[in-house]
Amino acid sequence: MTNSKAGILPLWKPRGMTSFQAVRKAGGILKTKKAGHTGTLDPDVDGVLPICVGRATKIVEYLTAAEKVYSGEVTIGWSTETEDASGETVETRMPEEAFTEQEVDDMLVQLTGEQKQIPPMYSAVKVNGKRLYEYAREGVSVTRPVRTITVHSLERTSPVYQHDNGSVSFTFTCHCSKGTYIRTLAVTMGEKLGYPAHMSRLTRDASGSFSKEDCVTFEDMEKYADEQPEHILLPIEHAFEHVPSLTVEDDDLTRILQGGILPLPKQMDDPDIPFFVIFDPDGRLIALYKKDPKRHGMMRPEKMILTANDR
């Protein structure tokens, strides 16, 4: 495979590997340096990690902005520095008895919807050009930015059970907006119940239009990368299956390939459509376009995927 190849690798990232390490290993197998992931997964977390390869790196920002689905486990009884199972213990206070399922379900309802969240110190969020985990490792405390996130659904998926050591655990599934830290959400679950807590296990089940069923492993990559890359790389178009689209004929195609400003079709004159995708007659994704804010009844490029030189 060469750098001219483009597509999206829906990788199932294993635990014990950073997202950067996963991208580097995938790039080595695919024999390309032009690759980027679409949303960090912590080393302790496994799951869906779409990687953009070649020309597909142009759409990384759109995949990063996609909603996510996770399944995880929270353990109540102690908290950690990193808010997950690998961190040093900060506070220990075991519940006297297991919470009822109704108590837990009522608490999860309280954490559904739009809310404010402060990212954990052990995270890749940048403050003054430096990542929070770098400050944390130096023992430096900084003011962290408050984010607005949306938890679309948060549901318990197991009984509430108490361990021999007194801690209480249950599993859950969460459908949320980009930028949501499930580790922090797990800590908040404990706070709502009155005890320290941490995320004891987490898997990302879906990222945007990519699910577990789409994913390939590194073993799959080793098997197919050289001779049958179509088995592991999805076309760029897959990422925009649920986005409004237009197919243009040759008359407008040349102007669009040149990044031209064109009349806006009536069906795209909708404030609820932030951008739409444009295909050529062969079904190839050419560009993302949007309503021109300065020219009434016109559309302009949001992102060019192909240009006249690529034809």
TrEMBL record:
Keywords recorded for this protein, A-Z: Isomerase, tRNA processing
Gene3D superfamilies: Pseudouridine synthase
Any GO molecular function: RNA binding
Active site residues of this protein: D42 (nucleophile)
Catalytic activity: uridine(55) in tRNA = pseudouridine(55) in tRNA
This protein's name: tRNA pseudouridine synthase B
Entries under NCBIfam families matching the protein: TruB (TIGR00431)
E.C. numbers: 5.4.99.25
Chain's role: Responsible for synthesis of pseudouridine from uracil-55 in the psi GC loop of transfer RNAs.
Organism: Bacillus selenitireducens (strain ATCC 700615 / DSM 15326 / MLS10)
Short name of one Pfam family: TruB_N
Ranges where the Pseudouridine synthase II N-terminal domain occurs: 29-182
Residue ranges annotated for the tRNA pseudouridylate synthase B C-terminal domain, each copy included: 183-240
Family designation: Belongs to the pseudouridine synthase TruB family. Type 1 subfamily.
GO biological process: mRNA pseudouridine synthesis; tRNA pseudouridine synthesis
Domain of life: Bacteria
